[in-house]
């Protein structure tokens, strides 16, 4: 079913009433609990054998004002009015005039039906709540002034848009913040990493405007957004806020397959000191959970998914301040950005093809074979330029530790930046094929191809041609290291969604495969990996693993196996 434009452009997922009530209940409980030093909570768990950690202790939270900056039809704002008897002021903003009008009618109806002196459903006196809703564009509001104008303590609550700036740009959407790549450098600012969630910008703007101790914020968002917010807040001042994360079932509530949560922040007084070991954030598996399943935090400048697991394997973690280079280097696979041309399927040669010389080798000629490309074309190419290929999905499906596959890839270079012109003479069929599809290759949008030899690829070097590799998918939540051996007497290539270590022999590869499949590495991954990330495994994460220390622990000698690194 096609999604409505408002849902796509504005990330317009209206909050169900049941979830709205649960959000307010957790905000009441969690923001109060954050008045306790979460650093102590993290240390308690790190020193404990329990992964559940201590239960959060709730303290009363009695906001006098509630603000929903993107209120939509107002289910969360209305739930907050019902939840907090201490409220004096309730304010809602939204860019959609129809939503504002509908919520205004609901607020008026509620006011008219309320019994004098009583809050609906509660047998206690009620202060009159001054409720208002107005049409405002989030990105043109002076939030510092708005927040200071409301009574303290203030609770900012809501469900901001779940949409990226790139998605908005495709639609010509107007619901965009000012353009800035302030947190990005180099290639990150020119490629996909400059694509961010609008909610990240919105919530960060609100947090930056919160300067009164005791004010709180509770927002529904993707868990990846919550982590980015924690990193930003902690970079500015690691002791400014007490945070928490409660996971939600987004498929059940919104019908979308995304990892989402309720993230809360309590503004601490200026001068409050954070844990000397680094800031922390308890993570709960659901809105109903009262004990965290893990403690997220920062150690040695790294954001960690599970501090308890980290403490168990800290001896196998390379310090980011280490000046010595590791004895190995994780490599990513081949990047070509033109799968229809560069990725092939090897066809079984027919008797007629062999008889006609299409497959095989004539005297003085290079061996050739027949393949089919992504355009459905049958092509004849030199074997010297075509190699077996595995992708991340192939690695994830490997069950016996040794992976095989049926794809192939054109490899026109042996090293990055190598001149491709010699292919005219050494591999004329491949040169002719690439030239035929040159316009497709020339249109590759990534700037990394600019100024490079025609038909260039990336992620290729002597390491690519090592006969044995230990590889891992960068994309899958369940992390599994696998052995990759030669196919048809040729080294197997991996694509750029994979990472690998190269080896000269099967015995050496198996040695490190066993080490990487050990329990300490499993705990290391639990400490470092955020499964909901777009790419849970990265080269930087793998580089943090001290493989030399692990090999020494296993009683094996450190081998000079990585000759092709």
Automatic annotation (TrEMBL):
Keywords recorded for this protein, A-Z:
Methyltransferase, S-adenosyl-L-methionine, Transferase
The source's domain of life comes to Bacteria
Q: What is this protein called?
A: SAM-dependent DNA methyltransferase
Q: Which GO terms describe its biological process?
A: methylation
Annotated GO MF terms: methyltransferase activity
The family database entries (InterPro entries) matched by this protein are listed as:
N4_N6_ade-DNA_methylase, SAM-dependent_MTases_sf
**Originating organism:** Eiseniibacteriota bacterium
């Amino acid at each position: 079913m096609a999604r409505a434009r408002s849902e796509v452009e504005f990330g317009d997922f209206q909050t169900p009433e049941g979830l709205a009530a649960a959000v307010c209940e957790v905000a009441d409980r969690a923001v109060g609990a954050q008045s306790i030093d979460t650093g102590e909570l993290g240390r308690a768990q790190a020193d404990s054998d329990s992964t559940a950690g201590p239960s959060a202790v709730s303290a009363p939270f009695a906001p006098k004002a509630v603000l929903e900056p993107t209120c939509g039809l107002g289910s969360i704002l209305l739930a907050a009015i019902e939840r907090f008897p201490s409220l004096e002021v309730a304010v809602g903003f939204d860019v959609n005039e129809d939503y504002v009008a509908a919520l205004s009618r609901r607020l008026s109806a509620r006011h008219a039906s309320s019994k004098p002196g009583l809050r609906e459903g509660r047998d206690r006196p009620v202060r009159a709540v001054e409720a208002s809703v107005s049409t405002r564009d989030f990105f043109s509001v002076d939030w510092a002034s708005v927040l200071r104008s409301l009574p303290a303590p203030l609770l900012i609550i809501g469900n901001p848009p779940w949409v990226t700036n790139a998605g908005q740009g495709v639609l010509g959407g107007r619901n965009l913040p000012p353009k800035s790549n302030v947190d990005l450098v180099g290639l990150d600012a020119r490629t996909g990493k400059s694509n961010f969630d609008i909610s990240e910008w919105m919530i960060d703007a609100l947090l930056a405007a919160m300067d009164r101790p005791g004010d709180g914020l509770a927002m529904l968002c993707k868990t990846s957004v919550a982590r980015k917010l924690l990193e930003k807040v902690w970079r500015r001042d690691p002791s400014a806020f007490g945070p928490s994360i409660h996971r939600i079932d987004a498929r059940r509530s919104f019908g979308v397959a995304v990892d989402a949560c309720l993230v809360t922040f309590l503004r601490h007084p200026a001068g409050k000191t954070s844990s000397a070991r680094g800031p922390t954030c308890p993570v709960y598996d659901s809105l109903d959970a009262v004990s965290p399943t893990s403690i997220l935090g920062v150690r040695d400048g790294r954001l960690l998914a599970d501090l308890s697991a980290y403490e168990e394997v800290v001896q196998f973690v390379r310090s980011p301040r280490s000046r010595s280079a590791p004895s190995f280097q994780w490599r990513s696979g081949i990047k070509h950005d033109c799968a229809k041309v560069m990725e092939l399927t090897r066809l079984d040669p027919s008797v007629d093809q062999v008889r006609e010389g299409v497959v095989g080798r004539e005297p003085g000629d290079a061996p050739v074979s027949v393949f089919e490309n992504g355009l459905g074309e049958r092509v004849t190419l030199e074997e010297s330029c075509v190699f077996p290929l595995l992708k991340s999905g192939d690695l994830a499906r490997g069950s016996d530790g040794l992976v095989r596959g049926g794809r192939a890839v054109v490899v026109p270079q042996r090293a990055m930046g190598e001149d491709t012109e010699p292919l005219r003479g050494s591999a004329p069929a491949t040169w002719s094929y690439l030239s035929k599809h040159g316009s497709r290759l020339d249109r590759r949008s990534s700037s990394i191809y600019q100024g490079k030899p025609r038909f260039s690829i990336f992620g290729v070097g002597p390491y690519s041609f090592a006969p044995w590799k230990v590889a891992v998918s960068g994309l899958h939540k369940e992390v599994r290291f696998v052995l990759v051996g030669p196919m048809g007497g040729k080294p197997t290539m991996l694509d750029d969604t994979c990472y690998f270590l190269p080896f000269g022999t099967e015995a050496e590869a198996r040695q490190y495969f066993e080490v990487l499949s050990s329990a300490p590495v499993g705990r290391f991954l639990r400490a470092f990996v955020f499964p909901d990330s777009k790419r849970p495994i990265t080269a930087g994460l793998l580089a943090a693993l001290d493989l030399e220390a692990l090999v020494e622990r296993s009683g094996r000698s450190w081998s000079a196996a990585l000759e092709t690194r």
